[in-house]
Amino acid sequence: QKEVEQNSGPLSVPEGAIASLNCTYSDRGSQSFFWYRQYSGKSPELIMSIYSNGDKEDGRFTAQLNKASQYVSLLIRDSQPSDSATYLCAVTPSNNNDMRFGAGTRLTVKP
Amino acid sequence: DGGITQSPKYLFRKEGQNVTLSCEQNLNHDAMYWYRQDPGQGLRLIYYSQIVNDFQKGDIAEGYSVSREKKESFPLTVTSAQKNPTAFYLCASSITGPWPQHFGDGTRLSIL
User: Fold this and answer.
1) Around B74, how many Cα atoms within 13 Å sit in the side-chain half-sphere?
2) Lowest mean pLDDT: which of A31-35, A68-72, A92-96, B100-104?
3) How many CB atoms lie within 10 A of CB B105?
4) B100 → closest Cβ in A43, A49, A101
5) Separation CA A56–CA B76 (nearest Å)
6) How far apart are the C-alpha atoms of A84 and B88, rounded to whole Å?
7) What is the mean pLDDT of residues A21-37?
8) Given an 8 Å threshold on Cβ–Cβ distance, is B50 in contact with A92?
């Protein structure tokens, strides 16, 4: 079982729709969870951090965390073509010394 | 502006050659990391360092070496022992521990 798993996609949504990206992790002791956006050929940029169960909203983005189910998700409301990118889920394992990344989900928002 | 600077942006390695990728940060972050990304894949950890003069191997350290003589700098050497070095190399830093990492712009390494 991979430490951090994401659906590789590609996920395609029409402009204005809600995009839902999912991630599961294996280390039950993980405490910190992050979503990064990576445009093609560029480095990842942090878009959301979440540390406790529940929802965290920032503009059009909502991160959801359920530690009991070892599941973290990212919702993008009113999706725009500029949201087209690969979204990486990252988890800090219980040793808190490094970060584990999923393989990423490629999102395409069609005008 | 605070940030992470990686150089060069593109690098070519000849057979049997060692090459060094530079990573400098002026964010006053304690922790620094090196990742490798292959096309269509996620990030794999090569080495990380939590403090000066100390570093730990990640999942794919074989064929790579690092040093951390200064807080601001964490260079990565790709040795000739790394037989498949073609990849996108990313350096990151964080305050410490569980805090989010911030990335440099990356170095693309190819074999001549």
Assistant:
1) 33
2) A92-96
3) 14
4) A49
5) 36
6) 20
7) 95
8) no
pLDDT one-digit tens code per residue, B26-47 = 999 999 999 999 987 889 999 9
Instruction: Tally Cβ neighbours within 10 Å of residue A9.
Output: 15
Q: Please list every residue in chain B whose beta carbon sits closer than 8 Å to the beta carbon of residue A34.
A: 100
Residues of chain A with Cβ-Cβ distance to B27 below 8 Å are none
**What is residue A83's three-state secondary structure?**
helix
pLDDT category, A1, cuts 50, 70, 90?
low
Contact call for A101 and B33, based on CB within 8 A: no
Which residues from A are below 8 Å from B40, CB to CB?
Answer: 103
Tally Cβ neighbours within 10 Å of residue B15.
Answer: 7
User: Chains A, B: CB contacts under 8 A, how many?
Assistant: 50
